[in-house]
Design brief:
Layout lengths: L1 E3 L7 H8 L6 E5 L5 H5 L6 E7 L9 E6 L4 E4 L11 E8 L4 E8 L6 H15 L4 E8 L13
Parallel strand pairs: 1-2, 7-8
Antiparallel strand pairs: 2-4, 3-4, 5-6, 6-7
């Protein structure tokens, strides 16, 4: 499940209400607006914070991946690719008995550098791709697909 939460601080109960009764395995959030310590201390029943990106200089933004407590996972560190506004990303690898699933959460601000974003996401996908690996990319990349523009290609 993906949700552009536009500020998570006072919305955890509302978020949990949208997840019930069928709790998804993974919840990707963009624009959580929280600082690292706030996100680390946030509690959502039945979920663990698997991966995150929090802004340190600018307000708002950020990505987080919450994973159901019943699943085994590994956090994949993508901090070196993150640039506030241009690409804010985090990744988990879900460890299943027969396969691995990578879940990549991404946020790009409407004012972010699109060229830099494309180069980084291409590099991330190249590095994570392996045989017998499924990759799920979810997020808010702020491209209006209803308007004709070069970015939507």
């Amino acid at each position: 499940m993906l949700n552009n939460i536009r500020g998570l601080r006072d919305k955890t109960n509302e978020l949990l209400g949208t997840l019930l009764p069928n709790l998804p395995h993974v919840v990707c959030l963009t624009e959580h607006h929280l600082r690292e310590q706030e996100l680390d201390n946030l509690s959502i029943a039945h979920y663990t914070l698997g991966a995150k990106f929090c802004r340190t200089n600018l307000k708002h933004g950020g990505t987080g991946i919450f994973i159901h407590e019943s699943l085994a996972y590994t956090n994949i560190d993508l901090q070196k690719f993150c640039t506030e506004q241009d690409i804010e990303t985090c990744t988990i690898k879900i460890n299943l008995p027969t396969a691995y699933i990578y879940v990549i959460g991404i946020y790009r601000s409407p004012t972010g550098n699109y060229t830099h974003f494309i180069k980084c996401i291409d590099t991330i996908l190249d590095q994570q791709y392996k045989p017998n690996v499924e990759i799920i990319v979810c997020g808010d990349i702020n491209i209006n697909y209803l308007d004709e523009n070069c970015n939507k290609r």
